[in-house]
């Protein structure tokens, strides 16, 4: 079967395959997430058509022998390597050893994720201890960011999660956070 016959059989056009190549080139070159609307504008195709092509491209990457995948977060799309190949990538990149997040940093990150935007004082009140070091660590790792200031005495800094947080935990957006068990129990008691 000739390539053009194959493409027609599955409702694809040579143009669609070319667009996939353009998408791959852009995502590879950028290396970070690209806004889907911006990508649509750059390629000069309808947003609905782009999303259809991205879905098709994502299915192609899901094949066992492919080393790449598409990840989506906050209406951005990014080309990434599959997690199962991370050991090989680590061997060649030899990354600096990063320590895991401390329990305090994990607690602080969870509080920020569920209560954002939130001030340091509010975080400290919830945890019952100071969170300066945990906040500093999370800022350094790019998992949280300053998102403005509260309009009150002292104008405390507000913190929220970042796109890096979404990528790290595999969420498309903040609404995908699991429901808190504590809140679920309170609702059941009522």
Walk me through what this model shows:
- This protein has ten helices and six strands.
- The N terminus is likely disordered.
- The protein has a three-stranded antiparallel sheet with strand order 1-3-2, sandwiched between helices. Strands 4-6-5 form a three-stranded antiparallel sheet.
- With 190 residues, the chain is an alpha+beta fold.
- It folds into two domains: 90 residues, Arc Repressor Mutant, subunit A; 87 residues, Arc Repressor Mutant, subunit A.
Q: Fraction of residues in helices?
A: 40-55%
Number of domains: 2
Q: Which sequence of strands runs across the widest sheet? A: 1-3-2
Number of helices: 10
What structural class do the secondary elements suggest? alpha+beta
Instruction: Supply the CATH architecture of the largest domain.
Output: Orthogonal Bundle
CATH superfamily of the largest domain: Winged helix-like DNA-binding domain superfamily/Winged helix DNA-binding domain
Query: How big a fraction of the residues is strand?
Result: 5-15%
Biggest beta sheet summary: 3 strands, antiparallel
Family: Belongs to the ScpB family.
Protein name: Segregation and condensation protein B
Keywords: Cell cycle, Cell division, Chromosome partition, Cytoplasm
Pfam family, one: SMC_ScpB
